[in-house]
Amino acid sequence: MFATHYHELIALAGAYDHVANFSTAVLDRGGEIIFPHKVRPGGSDRSYGIEVARLAGLPVDVLARARTLLNEIDGARGEVAAATGGGGAYVSSAPAPRQVSFLEPLPSPVLERLRRLDVDELTPREALNELARLQQQALKEGP
């Protein structure tokens, strides 16, 4: 498995003997990122996805938007770190930015509907109709 940067992959290497992390060496020369074509053990120190996208030739406006989003996420992380003195628990009323986990199952509208459904309030006819709707939606979602 390859990724430019993924914290969960790094954590998996610590949890399983048969998982190892390797990353591409990176040289940062005054903001100019260079990948010297060397692989080294361990994870990367930060995300280089935007730099990889730049080298791959993605449009400048896409790269600019990605940098804006990354700065927003990093800014929110900095606010949490400042509020906690660099550690400790901090609860904010603002939603925390979150990296999508590849270990979590994707949310299913069918399961979400089932969780909210109050089956004790349904008539038998309503229950059958709801079951038919959920089945049709599940068939559209796929496996």
Characterize the structure shown.
- The protein has 143 residues and is mostly helical.
- The chain has a two-stranded antiparallel sheet. The protein has a two-stranded antiparallel ribbon with strand order 2-3.
- The chain is built from five helices and four strands.
- Residues 87-97 have low confidence and may be disordered.
How would you summarize what this structure contains?
This protein has 143 residues and is mainly α. The protein has helices at 7-15, 49-55, 60-83, 109-116, 124-141, and strands at residues 22-24, 27-29, 32-34, 39-41.
Q: What fraction strand?
A: 5-15%
Report the uncertain regions. Answer: 87-97
Count of separate DSSP helical elements = 5
Separation, N- and C-terminal Cα atoms: 23 Å
Helix content: 40-55%
Query: What topology, given as strand order, has the largest sheet?
Result: 1-4
Biggest sheet: strands, sense, closure?
A: 2 strands, antiparallel
How many extended strands? 4
Gyration radius over CA: 22 Å
Mean pLDDT, to the nearest integer, reads: 77
Q: State the order of secondary-structure elements, H for helix, E for strand.
A: HEEEEHHHH
What is the general shape? elongated
> Which secondary-structure class do the elements indicate?
mainly alpha
